[in-house]
Amino acid sequence: TWKWVVGPMFLYLCERLVRFWRSQQKVVITKVVIHPFKTIELQMMKKGFKMEVGQYIFVKCPAVSKLEWHPFTLTSAPEEDYFSIHVRIVGDWTEGLFNACGCDKQEFQEAWKLPKIAVDGPFGTASEDVFSYETVMLVGAGIGVTPFASVLKSVWYKYCHDATNLKLKKIYFYWLCRDTHAFEWFADLLQSLEAQMQERNNAEFLSYNIYLTGWDESQATHFAVHHEEEKDVITGLKQKTLYGRPNWENEFKTIAGQHPGSRIGVFLCGPEGLADTLNKQSISNSEADPRGVHFIFNKENF
C-alpha cells in the first residue's frame, strides 16, 4: 500500500512546489480598464509568461486575501505583449479587488499604488486546438464567452500577419446569454472585428449569432420595431440579435451542407446540459463515410 501512496504524494508535492515557485514570480499590472456594468480588465506582464488561446490562470491578491486563489480565463491573445483578464464584480473578493485597484475613486490611480498580484499558470483547455481545423463552431454561454475573446483576437492577428498560411478558413460563432449588458466589452470586440473584416472585404470569414435567452414580451416588441435598422439596437452590430435558443439540429445540418467532406471542430464553453446537446448533434450529424463531414466535439464546462 505504501508504494501506491508514496508515488502519487511525491508527484503532488512536486506539483505544489512548482506552482508555489511560479506564484512568487513578480507580476506587474500595466493597465486597469473599467468597463460598463462593474467589469474591470487587468492587463499584466510577467517575465517568461507564455500562453495559448483559451487558457486560464489562477490569481491571488494579498491585499484582498492572503489565501484565496481564483481562476480567470485569459482574454488577451498570445500575439499581444501583455496578458489580460476581465473581472466582473459579483462578490466580496472581486469587490475587494475593484477597490484595491482604485476603481472606486474618481482620480487617476498611479501605477505604484496598484496592488501586488500573484499569478499561477497558464493552464490549458480544449480551445487550444481551434487552429487545427479549417472550419470551427464556437459556442459560448454566458460567462463562457470569455475564452473566445482570446481565440478571436489571435485569429485576427494571424489573419493580418499571414492569411495564406492560416489553416482556419471559416468561423461560426454562437453567443448565448440572458442579456448582453454584463459582457458589453465583448460586444465591443465583435464590433471591432466586424469593421476590420469588412475593410478587408472578407466579412464572410466570421459568421456570428447572438441569442438573448432571457427575453420578455417588451423586449420582443422592441426587437420587432427596430429589426429593419442597419445596426442592432442592443449590441450595435450589423448582425441582428436573436431571441430564444438556437435550433441546433438545423444549425448543424446547415453547416454540414456548406462544408461537405470537412472535419469541423465544435468548441463549447458552457453548462453541462448544453454540452450534452452539442455532443449528440455532433455524433448524429457526422457521416459514417471517412470522406464525409465529421463534427469533432470539444468542451470546457464551468
Automatic annotation (TrEMBL):
One of its GO terms (molecular function) is metal ion binding. CDD domains: NOX_Duox_like_FAD_NADP. It is found in: Cell membrane. One of its GO terms (cellular component) is monoatomic ion channel complex. The keyword Transport applies. InterPro entries: Cyt_b245_heavy_chain, FAD-bd_8, FAD-bd_FR_type, Fe_red_NAD-bd_6, FNR_nucleotide-bd, RBOH/FRE, Riboflavin_synthase-like_b-brl. Catalytic subunit of the phagocyte NADPH oxidase complex that mediates the transfer of electrons from cytosolic NADPH to O2 to produce the superoxide anion (O2(-)). In the activated complex, electrons are first transferred from NADPH to flavin adenine dinucleotide (FAD) and subsequently transferred via two heme molecules to molecular oxygen, producing superoxide through an outer-sphere reaction. PROSITE patterns: FAD_FR (PS51384). Keywords: Cell membrane, Electron transport, FAD, Flavoprotein, Glycoprotein, Heme, Ion channel, Ion transport, Iron, Isopeptide bond, Membrane, Metal-binding, NADP, Oxidoreductase, Phosphoprotein, Transmembrane, Transmembrane helix, Transport, Ubl conjugation, Voltage-gated channel. Its main location: membrane. This is NADPH oxidase 2. It comes from Stercorarius parasiticus (Parasitic jaeger). Residues 19-129 form the FAD-binding FR-type domain. Its cofactor is FAD. It catalyses: NADPH + 2 O2 = 2 superoxide + NADP(+) + H(+). GO terms for biological process: defense response; monoatomic ion transmembrane transport; superoxide anion generation. Transmembrane segments: none annotated. PANTHER family: CYTOCHROME B-245 HEAVY CHAIN (PTHR11972:SF60), NADPH OXIDASE (PTHR11972). It is a multi-pass membrane protein. Pfam families: FAD_binding_8, NAD_binding_6.
